[in-house]
Every structure is written in structure tokens, then in C-alpha cells.
Amino acid sequence: MSLAKTASLRQLLTFQTVARLGSVSLAAEELHLSQSAISIQIASLEASVGAPLVVRTGRGVRLTEAGDMLLNYADRLQALWTEASDEMATFLGAFSGTLRVGAVTTSEYWLPRLLVTFVNENPRVKLKLHVANRDEIVRSLAAQEIDIAVMGHPPDEFKVIAASFAKNPTAFMAAPHHPLMSDPALSMATLADAHLLVRERGSGSRTTVERLFREAGLRMRIGSELSSNEAIKQMCAAGFGPAYLSMHTCILEMNAGLLKLLPMANNPVEREWYVVRMATKQLPQVAMAFEHFLRTKGQAEIHRQMWLPWAPSEAA
Questions:
Q1: What is residue 4's predicted lDDT score, i.e. its pLDDT?
Q2: pTM
Q3: Which of 33, 51, 72, 169 is buried most, with the most CB atoms less than 10 Å from its CB?
Q4: Who wins on pLDDT, 186 or 9?
Q5: What is the DSSP annotation of 202-245?
Q6: 72-99 pLDDT tens trace
């Protein structure tokens, strides 16, 4: 029996809802249907597939191997159907849709404000924001779970279209009372032996700081590895060790005198923020509009909303 000829989009939506909620009764409540109607649709879909999709347990339902496989396609079909609906609405003059953005964790200190500005300008736009470390955002982009990504370095693993839209100053920092602050000959070689606070593997800042030491011909000594920018800032401010951070993450701490730039050459390092999309994927109109927004207004918006103790344009 052909699934394409016998299954309906409504059945797939019902199956997807049951899978998401793990319960026939909860799915019936959300879809405003009876439990028997839900069960009939699932049974019809299973007949079309030719295999059980769910197994009933004492606490609800769980997916079979066939169910897991079909759910992946159901999710993609729903996303495509939603995109088609949004594109038709835009074509007919009502700019709307769901903006699916992935962003590295460092950008969460400024990106939400830009998203608010964009959505306020386009009130019919819905937002889906996924924040994670760089490796996870790259994976989500490749899997087309997001339409565009905001990160500090575009991926090399597959073909993308990337455009820089704002400065991303990063720097080695320490507490004002840390001994390194008074070292007149402070250098990368000195930092190589310091108790350096770094992000976990897979984060953009970790990749960058490793590259800086590698380019200097030095082996970086990791003092502590943390998965949170906030934890790194707090430990650094307490004098536990120097840290390598995006200056966008610690403006408040720098203005309050809790963190300072280490006095060494080429510090801070001027990097860029990029908006990235798959080269092989046609972007929805709403994603194209946000990409244009970042490229034309991103730097000005970041500058307007965040005051840096050190301005990128003043770099040596």
C-alpha cells in the first residue's frame, strides 16, 4: 500500500501531535477531537505505512522505530507546509511568517533586542530562536532546523552564504587586582602558562582562542573549562584567572570596574559577526528580510543599544 496515495496531511498532523505530547488524550484535547477519532487516524496511518507507529504504555504512548522515522518526515512536511502558507500570505500582500534563527550563545547579549526591533517593525512575524554553542548551531543549519544562523565564524563543513554585518571585539580580560594586570611584559607566552578560563569545545570563542595560541606557536594551558559565559565572567571577576571573552558579553562588568582588558599587544582582537545561510536552500521571505535587516542595520542597532568601553573603530 502506498503511503503517498492513502495517507493524508491531517493524519500526519495528528500523529505528530500524539508523538510530541506522548499521549492520545492530550492530543485529542489540543486538536479538539475525541480520543476515538485520534485512534482511528493513527490506525489508518499505520495501515498505510504497513507497520505500527506507536506503542501504548501505562503513561501514554511511545514511538516505534517506524514511528521515529515517520516523525522526522512529518516534521519536515509541516515546516514546508507552514513555509508555503507564509510565502503565499506574503505574495498576497500580508508580510508574515515564522523567523527561524539559530544563534551562538555569545550573541544572546544583544541579538534579542535586534529581534524585538525587527518584530516590532513586522508585527505579523512569529519568532523561533535557538541558542546553543557553535557546533550545535552548525548542525541545526545543516539539518535545516533553522533558516539563518548568527555566529562569529561561518562553517567550513558545507557550502554557505555568509555576510559580516557587525564588529565582534573579543579580548583577554582579568580582574583589576589580578597579578597579570601589573605585568609590564605581558604576552601570549605569559598567558600560555596562566590559569586561563575558557568555554567548552564546540563553542566559537574556544575555537578562536585555540587558534590564537596555535598561530603564536604556543600550547594553551587550560585552567578551567566552563559551558557558560556568565560563569566565566564571575570567576574571572573574582580573580580566579584571566579569560578570553567577547566584549559584548561583559559591558556591565567593564563599566563597573569588575573586569579590565589585560595590558598586552593586539588586545582586543577585532572579529566579525556573520549572518549565515545554506547556499542550496531558498530562504523564506521573512528570513530574507531579517538577513537584510542585519546587513543594513545590525551594526548601528548594536552600537545604539550597547555602549562599549572600547569602540571597535579605535582598534590599532
A1: 61
A2: 0.67
A3: 169
A4: 186
A5: TSHHHHHHHHHHHHTT-PPPEEEEES-HHHHHHHHHTTS--EEE
A6: 888 888 877 777 777 776 665 556 788 9
**Is the per-residue pLDDT at 243 higher than 90?**
yes
Residue boundaries of the structural domains of the chain: 3-82, 86-166+272-310, 168-271
Residue type, 91: F
Banded model confidence at residue 5, pLDDT cuts 50, 70, 90: low
CATH architecture of 86-166+272-310: 3-Layer(aba) Sandwich (3.40)
| Topology agreement, domain 86-166+272-310 and domain 168-271 | yes
pLDDT at 313: 43
For the chain, the C-alpha Rg in angstroms (whole number) is: 24
pLDDT in tens, 199-212: 888 787 888 888 88
Q: How far apart are CA 112 and CA 103, in angstroms?
A: 10
Three cell numbers written together for 267 = 588586545
Alpha carbons within 13 A on the beta-carbon side of 216: 17
SS (H, E, C) 54-108: EEEECCEEEECHHHHHHHHHHHHHHHHHHHHHHHHHHHCCCCCEEEEEEEEHHHH
Could you name the CATH architecture of 168-271? 3-Layer(aba) Sandwich (3.40)
Torsion over CA: 128, 169, 278, 294 (sign): positive
**216 grid coordinates:** 603564536
Q: How much is the pLDDT for 92? A: 53
Cα distance between residue 20 and residue 97, in whole Å: 22
Burial class for 251, CB neighbours closer than 10 Å (0-12, 13-18, 19+)? middle
Give the C-alpha separation, 233 to 251, whole Å: 11
Is 241 within 8 Å of 198 (Cβ atoms)? no
